[in-house]
Amino acid sequence: MKPKSKAMGRVACLLSASIASLLRGAGSFDEHPYSLSASFKTPMDTLAGLTDWAQGINYVYAITTVVVAIVFLAVSIPLVYAIRRFRVSDEEWGTLVPPKQVHGNAILEFTWTIIPVILLLFIAVPTWQIIFRQPEKHQVPANAMRIEVIGHQWWWEFRYPELGITTANELHLPEKTPVYFEISSADVIHSFWVPQFGGKMDALPGKGAENHLFFTTPVLQHPEKKGGEYYQGQCAELCGLSHALMRFEAVLHEKAEFERWATVFHNPPVVQTDLEKKGEQVFMQCMSCHTIEKTPSADLEKQLLAMTPPAHKAGPNLTDFGSRRMIAAGTRHNTAENFHDWVHDPSSIKPGSKMVSLGLPQADIEAVAAYLRYSTAKTY
Ligand code: CUA
After folding, report:
1. Average pLDDT for 97-114
2. Spatial separation of the C-alpha atoms in residues 2 and 7, rounded to whole Å
3. 229, 213 in Cβ contact below 8 A?
4. Nearest to 129 by CA among 56, 46, 181
5. Is the CB of 235 under 6 A from ligand 1?
């Protein structure tokens, strides 16, 4: 094949692959870990904004789109007209005289300076209005729920200081509630983003480098369904090898259901079968990095936090692990098989993962899976 047709073939191949992935739709992340979908109402659709913050941003998008559409028409219509009206035939070519020159025409120059200024003001004023809707820390309404968001390579930690809850990768939220996020990072720059809830906010490392985000959570779209509504979140700042696999889910609840989640969270694991009891023992090897409330791992965490300076465990809090829909930062369904693959070799699922493979024998992995997946399942 000639190099040219080879390149053409490659382009055609890429195009057909993209079209196929569009037609296939969103699918689950397990099935199509890297598939894209351009259809509306997908889990990552910013245009289907649900919060006041997301709708404010979309309002600015709409104004900008109208302004640029007017500019486009104002330029392209006279352009097409001029091309057709003043077309020169072959005979006329050579007999043409240059048109009258308008260099230095003050009125013209003033006009084409002032028009873009007016257009930019049209876009800038609503943009400022939306930006300044984000309150300063001291302006946050007293009834707002405070949530600390901490980015880690490559997972998300969520702390609810008022509720004494620390969890990971599932951001539980009550509906119709103002929420104030305090966003930071434990290592490199990440970016907190739930597309349907509005714009991204960088998670910066370092003392005092905290960013904030404030919005009112939306109403449930399907209140008849039990168990909360799931919205996809994604790290939106390149943060290393597994950046694309740094996902999470925001789970929206009815207010009463959220209260129940917050209460049940503090219940100790219910260890029943022999396998689960064995898993509880195996988990002792995991507790230097992970914590489950009301177990020795939580006592160890308290000791670490009491040190000066306080030490933090490296891994996510697994208190309600059994209730989580996904594992490995929202990238795999919480099934026994995926759990096995994850614990056996974390880097095979998330390249560069900081979680080490402990080289546990098969029987130990099965036991710890039973303990984590069943004993820590909280019903709410
Ligand atoms: Cu964290 Cu990208």
Report:
1. 87
2. 9
3. no
4. 56
5. yes
> 23-27, 72-76, 100-104, 141-145: which has the minimum mean pLDDT?
23-27
Is-contact 364 276, C-beta < 8 A? no
Q: CA end-to-end span of the chain, whole Å?
A: 62
Structural domains in the chain, CATH included, are: 3-131 (1.10.287.90), 144-264 (2.60.40.420), 274-375 (2.60.40.420)
Nearest CA to ligand 1 atom 1: 190
Whether the CB of 149 sits within 6 Å of ligand 1:
no
d(CA 343, CA 338): 9
Highest mean pLDDT among 21-35, 39-53, 346-360: 346-360
- Of the candidates 316, 296, 321, which has an alpha carbon nearest to the alpha carbon of residue 378? 321
Whether residue 218 has its Cβ less than 6 Å from ligand 1: no
pLDDT at 11: 52
Ligand 1 atom at minimum distance from 240 CA: 2
